[in-house]
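1st attempt posting a full record on here, be nice pls
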Amino acid sequence: MNFKYFFLLFILTSCFNENKTIFGGKVLNTTSEYISIYKDDNKVDETSIDSLGYFEITLDSIKPGLYSFYHQPEFQHFILDKYDNLMIRLNTLDFDESLVYTGKGSSKNNFLMDVFLRNERDEVIINSNLDNSVTIFKKLIDSLYNNQYKFYKEFRINNNVSKTTNDIIESAILYPYLSKYHSYFIRNNLNENDQNYCLSDYKKKISFNNENLSHFKPYIDFIYLHIYNDVKKNNNFISLIDFNKLRLLKTDKLIQSSTVKSRVLRFHAIGFLLQREKDSTNNQFINIFNEVSKDKKLNLEIYNLYNEMK
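the predicted structure (as tokens):
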């Protein structure tokens, strides 16, 4: 089936499914027989891809927000609103760069992909400047962030954007740059005055309790680095275990949302266990982790990982 005919069929089908949400499209050079949609950790639906690479998923009801589609071994975040009729086209040989959305709901997702790709390009520039002075580094980050946000303001002029979509896109722009700030602080052991100077324009935009972003990696990366930097900066630890205990306690104190808190604690725990310290050290960490975390399901997951890595 020619892609333009598939697109026409998609549009005609959409006319008869105005009260449903549709996610479909074509995958070139498939690496799996299936494509699936997730909301947070929950699989919403899954369908097979036909021999020509086409698929379609129809959803009767959804909660608007951030979703992910998986075509193993790759995945990508996207925004889904009620009654969107969204079609993708991608080539797995160049997954992110080839991904294009069409149909109802496509403009916000094409813009979100542009944000992700700009972040990747900017990261290369930022990484080559991590040893520069505070003034130069701040000028660079602020310029890159303001540039991204200028594009978004122009996008909003010509596109109706829901509160949920606005929150996701603004966060996708903001948090990767804040993470780079914290990486710079950690690398260069910046004092508190210099850190406040760098972050002064952003502090009112930061939230540590946004449950809509609890499974958005750039957001969790930012919180993880913020806590790591904060504990390191205060320098009130005398050992590896002490340092990691303070990180867990800081997480517990800083974050009120149980969902976000569990995601960050999980990130801490997996990162620590992957360092493969001696068993007595890991055992100490697990005991502290179980005291801090109130999420029994998470505690069991981390304990099982600890046992598997012995």
